[in-house]
Amino acid sequence: MGATAPVDGAAAGPAGVAARRGGRDAPPVRRCAAVRPSGLTFSRGRGQTTGVLRWRVPRNATTRAKGRRAVRYRVIRDRGVVGQTAKRALRLKVTLGRSHRFAVQALDAKGKPVRRCRAEKRVRVAYRAPGSPRYVAVAGDERGLRLSWQAGARGDGEPAGYRLVRDGTTVGQTTQTSWAVPAAPNRTYRFQVVAVDRRGRTSAPSATVTARTGHEPPTAPAGLAALAVSESELGAQWQPSTVASGEIKGYRVLRDGAVVGQVAATSTVLGNLAPSTDYEVAVVAIDSHGYTSAPAVVRGRTHDPVPTTGHAQAYLLASTDQSFADFRAHYRQIGVVHPTYYDCTGAGALVGSDDPLVTRWAQARRVEVLPRINCQRTATVHKILTDPATRAAWLDRLVGLAREVGYDGISLDFEAGPAEDRAALTSFVQELAGRLHADGRKLAIALSSKTRDSLTHPRSGIFDYAPLSEAADYLFLMAWGLHWTTSVPGPQDDADWVRRVVEYVKTMPQKHKFVFGTNLYALDWPNGGGAQNKATAYEYQDAMALLPQFAAQIRHDPVTDNYQATYTDAAGVAHEVWYPDADTTARRVRIAKEAGLGGVGFWRLGREDQRVWDDPLLAPGVAW
Fold first, then answer.
1. pTM (two decimals)
2. Is pLDDT of 62 > 70?
């Protein structure tokens, strides 16, 4: 007999040498290809912790050959041998809910592993949850519903019961296969049933069943009436609604179709309304089931607003709500408001837009609205005044703007015009005023202050007071600006300088058209000011909040009649602040009054010293 072939690379013994086992000759060592296990599968029954591992072997492999010992397979679970068999399957124990690594190793006739003749597989022995309940049904009406179902397939655990899910929320658990549940009128319910075992494992939800119940809604509120309370409020009252079941939980109130609130009482007040305006008020009853009645509807009208009897003029910064809020608080002391709506571009275009809320609110209270047309670009002002096409376009645009929006006039603020355009500005104002007056509108113009006329002054030279006052309705005299953001620190309006400005204005033939304007803000210069140390502008209230943080030293300068504050900030930088308050402002108001000027104006509304409005000369109804 010749030598056998090596098994997986092992050397064969001398010819005729055979192992002896049990007194019989063992068959020749097999090649792995003839006995290799493959295709491992594992199966088990529900609720069982044992299962059968099966595998395949080549078709020519046999368990016994002519009485000699069979090929056998060793079974390994998680590195531990659990059995050995000549068959192609072995029952073994597993742990539910964990992964096992199974291996099947072919053994040769001597019971030794055949090298590289092994199959492996990792098997997740998943815990089987209960099957979903079947044939779920619902019956009943708004007085109550009953659900029934059949059990689904059993899982690995002991059945514990069924959970009832209503509209996505679990409402209880039972061991029965039916359940009575309460219902409300005129509702739609969606039910599912979930099986659960004693280990807390749950099935997938059953199919959804839907139940719809009927309901009679509340009656509409009767006797609804709307009563004007003020220019911005309407009161509404009604009689209680009734319900067929449940109880009334409240009343939903709507204004012009939009919900504004819900109340438990049978009356309410609607606020934040426009004056002199008709509104539709509707009330809907709501019952304890969440259902609503038909609406009761009535119309009401707010009072006309109290008109202003004030005479002050003020600029309103349209980019901040605080400025408008300040205006609303003091409008009865203000006769003319100049909202900062429009600007010029370097190319000479007029840009900006109206704020209808501000404009209409003011006009409803008889406050004249003259929007500020701001242009402080010297080259642009020159082009507007001297280039025929640009000049004509601006005149047409300003008149058209006043007509389109319905302004009471226009407020012109050309502060940076060159002195050599003095005549051009005068003729521009004369033409614009004439066209506005023809429409029944007014023209205001902001003027740089001066104590005497100068034809060359870079700020005031362009303003020829006398002819301008003949054409315009209001000349807003900006009686401040002695110091500015890039100057050295100092007061905006030295008291002596203010008096000399007023004395010059008194020489004008139309002095009653001049409005004495004063500033209400502070300037804070660091490091001694100048172009490299620009000042920061603060409104009065903001300055008053800042100064105590740095223990500022504050004094009233009697010479300039202004306040001066000095402090050092957290970075060690020295600051000097100059600002007015209500007392210094009141003294300037009296200077204007005693000089016979046409009124006073402020830059600007916002967070000024609120005591300014306590001045008796600014009280509503007080003649100037």
1. 0.62
2. no
